[in-house]
Amino acid sequence: MSRWLRQQDPEFVRGTFSSIAGRYDLANHLLSGGLDFHWRSCVARVVRKSAPSKILDLATGSGDLAIALRKACPAAMVVGADFCLPMLEEARRKALPFLVQADGLALPFESGSFDVVTVAFGLRNMASWEKALLEMARVLRPGGLLVVLDFSLPANPLLRAVYRIYLHHLLPTIAGWATGRPEAYEYLGESIEKFPSGVGMNALLNACGFQCRRPKPMCFGIVTLYAAEKPGAVGLNDQA
Questions:
Q1: Third-level CATH fold of 3-232
Q2: Per-residue confidence in pLDDT tens, the chain, 240 aa
Q3: At how many degrees (to 10) do helices 85-92 and 24-32 cross?
Q4: Side-chain half-sphere of 29: how many Cα atoms within 13 Å?
Q5: Which residue ranges make up each domain of the chain?
Q6: Distance, CA of 168 to CA of 178 (rounded, Å)
Q7: Alpha-carbon span 3 to 9, nearest angstrom
């Protein structure tokens, strides 16, 4: 089975993240050069503008984005959900009050339950991007906001070539040192190559019923933030 097909397999994904849960945060900070703090802050600022009362952070992992959302939106209830229990246990150690073990393709929440859904570096790992996005649309209220943050490839050809060297060669080595599990990161570069970005991601969001803003590339395009709304009522376009 190819690395890409394994990456689409839920048991492979769960096992991979379970094996690195204890050192996941360290690996994130090292591999991003600390930029992951900035990326989460950008998501939190976008979410804060919508003045939500209830937020779902899907694929919350160790909970760092949920923490940033709680700080940015202190009046909101922030629910963190992930299907990997060891990652949720890491989040629980950070005193996050609302954590749920849940599969992104079959969320245990009523339709229209949330004002905002966020997913950072998690959609790419789900078995079906379309089914996951449709579930996110289902649990959002009409006019609700979806924010997706994930890796992408720089548009500049020279930067893209340099980044690919890092992605496919240096990153697994650094991650292996940080986690003791280099094989857990061997698929990452290929998954980023396959994942839609820019207008491609917006096309996917549109196909799942969302109305999109222009994608926001960050750090020369290695990460992109996507904001979209579920049609109906007052939403993202009225608050831009």
A1: Rossmann fold (3.40.50)
A2: 344 444 467 888 888 888 787 788 888 888 889 999 999 999 999 999 999 999 999 999 999 999 999 999 999 999 999 999 999 999 999 999 999 999 999 999 999 999 999 999 999 999 999 999 999 999 999 999 999 999 999 999 999 999 999 998 888 888 888 788 777 777 788 889 999 999 999 999 999 999 999 999 999 999 999 999 999 864 444 443
A3: 90
A4: 8
A5: 3-232
A6: 16
A7: 10
